[in-house]
Structures are given as C-alpha cells and as structure tokens.
Amino acid sequence: MPLVYLGLGSNFGDRLAHLDRAVMRLGELGAVRRSSWYETVPVDMPSAPYFLNGVVRVDTSLDPLGLLEFCLVLEKHEGRTRGRALSPRPLDVDILLYGDEVIAEPGLRVPHPRMHERAFVLVPLAELVPDLVHPVVGQTVADLLSRVSTEGVERVEGQ
C-alpha cells in the first residue's frame, strides 16, 4: 500500500469541525496520522477568511482516481460546491503525494503542482516527514521548506 499525503484546509464555517470529520472519514481507508493544524493566510484569495490547514498521511489500497473520488465526496459532504474558484470553502482536500508516483491525468496531477512553493503545505508536511524526497523536484521536504517564507503560518495551540 502506498503512503499517501493529503493537504486539508478549511476557511468557512466551523473550520476545526470540518477538518476533524474529514480525518475521521479518512480513517475508513486505513491508518491515519495527521500533523498539527495551522492557521494560515489565504493565498491568492484577497479578503478571504483565514484557513486552518494540515496534512494527513493515509495508508490506503485505493488507486489514485479512487482516492480522488473519495476526497471529492468528503468535500461535498462538508458542503463544498465547486465552480467558484478561489472562494471560501468548508473543506478542501488535495492529494499532495501518492507514494513516489508522478501522475498526470485529467483532473489529477500528483505531486500537487504547487506544493513545493506553499508554506501552508510544507510546514505541516515537514512536521510529519521532513526527510521525504519530492519525486519531481528531488529535494527533501525540509529543504523545500527552508526556501519559502513561513510568514502567516501559525500552529494552533491546544489540539
């Protein structure tokens, strides 16, 4: 079974409840380990509410497209409607890494195309697996994190 890393985020409604329910549902797929939650400034979304973000590692037997479908159902169950890009959302689930596979299919690109540029992904991912090597960029998560600003990414205490 490949180790899969998912980025989770919420900036609408009860953010923590949306994320906690998603983690619980992801447990249906296999063993789950999650990072801390981080409050983050929205990227490319002026005046949008702050996000809670984190990363979850899931052991799953689902193939990449099956996992994508599961993630889309999770988002929909939490009230996400697609079609309005860059709008607040109760739940956003991105497949960051699927083992060391590189996937380019309609609607699915893995590794996530911008994960290596985004502190709100790299900070929680480094908490889980700092030595993991990005299969395209060829650098560890810790190295990638050292190259981005972490301003606007704050760990939520008391979780």
UniProtKB/TrEMBL annotation:
| Entry annotated with the keyword Transferase | yes
This one is known as 2-amino-4-hydroxy-6-hydroxymethyldihydropteridine diphosphokinase
Q: Which NCBIfam families match?
A: folK (TIGR01498)
Cross-referenced InterPro entries: Hppk, Hppk_sf
> What highest taxon heads this organism's lineage?
Bacteria
What keyword terms does UniProt attach to this protein?
A: ATP-binding, Folate biosynthesis, Kinase, Nucleotide-binding, Transferase
Q: In which pathway does it act?
A: Cofactor biosynthesis; tetrahydrofolate biosynthesis; 2-amino-4-hydroxy-6-hydroxymethyl-7,8-dihydropteridine diphosphate from 7,8-dihydroneopterin triphosphate: step 4/4
The chain positions of domain 7,8-dihydro-6-hydroxymethylpterin-pyrophosphokinase read: 5-130
An example of a GO molecular function for this protein is: ATP binding
**Biological process, per Gene Ontology:** folic acid biosynthetic process; tetrahydrofolate biosynthetic process
Q: Which Pfam family is an annotated match for this chain, by its short name?
A: HPPK
- Which SUPFAM superfamilies does the UniProt record give? 6-hydroxymethyl-7,8-dihydropterin pyrophosphokinase, HPPK
By its UniProt entry, which Gene3D superfamilies does this protein fall under?
Answer: 7,8-Dihydro-6-hydroxymethylpterin-pyrophosphokinase HPPK
